[in-house]
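FYI - complex with NA7, inputs then prediction.
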Amino acid sequence: MAEAGNRHFDIIIVGAGFAGLYLIHKMRALGLSVRVFEKGDDVGGTWYWNRYPGARCDIESIDYSFGFDPELEQEWEWSEKYATQPEILRYAQHVAERFDLRRDISFETRVEKAVWDDETSGWSVTTDKGDTLTSRFFIMATGCLSQPKDIDIAGIENFTGEIYRTHSWPHEGVDFAGKRVGVIGTGSSGIQSIPLIAEQADSTTVFQRTANYSIPAGNGPIAPEKRAVKDRYRDYREEARWTRGGVPGPVAMDLALVTSEEEREQRYEKLWAKGAISHLALEFADLLVNLEANETLGQYARKRIRSKIEDPAKADILTPTEFPICTKRPCLDTGYFETFNRPNVDIVDIKKDPIRSITATGVATRDRSFDFDALVFATGFDAMTGALLAIDIVGRGGQSLQDKWADGPASYLGLAVEGFPNFFTITGPGSPSVLSNMILSIEQHVEWIADCLDHMRGERLDVIEATATAETGWVEYGTASSDMTLFPLAKSWYMGANVPGKPRVCLPYVGGVGAYRRACNDVVAQDYLGFRFDGPGGTRCNDGLVRRQQPDVVALLEMLDDLDLPPFESMSAAEARATSEAMSAGNPPGPAVGDVVDGEYPGAEGPLEYRLYRPQTEGPHPVTLYFHGGGWVLGDHASDDAFCRDLCVSADSIIISANYRHAPEHPFPAAVDDGFAALNWVAEDIEELGGISGALAVCGWSAGGNIAAVVCQLARDAGGPDIKGQVLITPVVDGADDSPSMTDNAEGFVLTRALMDWFWDHYADPAVRADPKASPLHAADLSNLPPALVITAEFDPLRDQGKAYAEALGAAGTEARHISYPGQIHTSFTAVGAIPTANDARQEMAAALRQSFRAMEPA
Ligand code: NA7
């Protein structure tokens, strides 16, 4: 090897793309010795290999560039909005020269194997040159889209013409003039190269399996406002670090589904004019989570695509329909669809007329045969895991990474793998990687690793390894995050679906770079939570999960944290009501129901409002009387609107949300008296309300759960009305609760202990809190009550009292079921749309109500 005899390094790195380059720079700054192995003969990684015509970045260059060095970012001038491959390669070369990085790189050298050695606490790394070197740390900077997918089309060896692959294009370029060219693949690489190939070639035939969404790049000189970013680059980069995709820009909180068609159209027009994909899916908050919302953008995109293609038959083939927009990487193009208006350019739909094989002279489909002088394959990559698994990496106890990942990649934060000590992956699976501005994500990983190694040195620790608990927790968190989105609906390389036999899991973390960075920082702040260290400084491990709540709950808590609102308990009741109303104003709407009627019912001491939700199905229906949450102080009959709609649809029941008098103006027992009055009114008028006589259940959330539980007891004691079932959602049932859940969740999560105390102080004097009408858990008799479903949340101060109530009901002979939902908080269940991970719980509630009503049907 070139580097005079040194065979041991602190760090061995694979890959001299942007990740490898920055790693050298950072590791050197720590005084560590580094060796990079790179199979190409120069730096640049993906930008070294992908030299096909039209290759460009699809993130604007002002963003897609290093932010670690203020001088570098000022001295480099990008010539266009989206730089071409040669320009980006020149940039990588400039970085290598500026920081004198090449001297630590062995080019044209492929790493074949790396084995962890427990004896020496280090890695032994073998290259294709037959060298074996050792290092303490081994870092994969191999890129996410660097391992080409095998060509899975029969007969390629028969073709006698020229064969080109976009990912390893000849450095000298290709002249297609006078040639008949066939192109297979219409992802980014195909969509970028086809217009330029078609400009030269005699004829171009494109074989398309799946039509793709693409928007016009509108490339050209950098817009003045974007260029002005250089004047505030430091702040701009910092802003980028906390975004979704690593590019600053507006992030809408509003929803496509509640925006008028005209406004949506205008906003989509602007998006198209901007020619950027970084914020496409962020235009509305529901585009990536709701199919119907997504379809509004999909429809718009299809309209724009069709409008460019003259031949309706070609337009039919080229218009994408098979997956929700943005669940496969959307493309940016320059004249792609217009290219098909050339008479010598054709498109073949190989879903309808599949390729049988490559022949000596071209391509044979089921129905036709085509002759070509050249074939171009733009068939993509074995994304994210391909390059990692292409090297035989063997960890502790002889376990290979291939074996460990046989069912899909398991990684802690996409950075480290349990069983593989002192091993890091830059932008590995489980990190935002390909869903982000890659350079920004690379920088974050490199900096995290550098800080970690510095920490280890300071603490005299030699070995770091992710724990199984932390890794499993992160993988589950990643899956829960992607399951909330539409990504799993597409057969995309994000999901591993492009490579036959590859496990189908969402490879990148979908929560965005800001949320991800917060998680990485939280790991460090908690003494490297989930990592085990070993060395002269001792053995240590703070094991645990960095994210214990469900991803949507985490997002909500982080959003509330950012709002930095004063706590409710520091406000007057009026201020708290106003704040609560303002906060729920932008809540996602619930589903459509058949009818919504507002009216008044006779409360205990005068008329009170109610809102009735009627299903779309034909009536009459069973009726569920619902009591809203809000600690007896906040909310009203309309405040849980989305939840009531949802319950109405899924339980196929009329929901009557009855208001009750609130504290402190009307303290205990006003609310429960009104609740009981509402029950009597509904029972009496049930048929006029469109209900089925006798088919009556109650449901309530939080303080409303308290009211629902109490009215069941009052009805039993009064000899009626008859209630068929009760669904109690995180109910308040004990005014004297001091259980572990009260203490564990005292400081969080939305409902704190202090807030619960504040509610009680407004509602009921301590002297009366033990009254079963205030604390139904304290009733002397809990028998003969309606069958109950009690829903509790893991991170709720009220968790243990809800559980205690279900147990006490059961012990007294009342049919009672309790379900505790992991990772949920007090407010999860009624937050329809905002907390999709509580959908299962909502389905359980609806099923319980349906069961209560079914129980009354004759067998
Ligand atoms: P992509 O986006 O994976 O595109 C590959 C294309 O090749 C896509 O249209 C595939 O169709 C098609 N393909 C793959 N295998 C076959 C076979 N066997 N027969 C026919 N067609 C096939 O890769 P790119 O290189 O374009 O882009 C990768 C990323 O690089 C891109 O997202 C940017 O981030 C940069 P399919 O859609 O699977 O039906």
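Residues 145, 152-153, 166, 184-190, 209-210, 329, 350, 378-381, 493, 498 surround NA7 (CB under 6 Å). Residues 583 and 825 are 17 Å apart (CA to CA).
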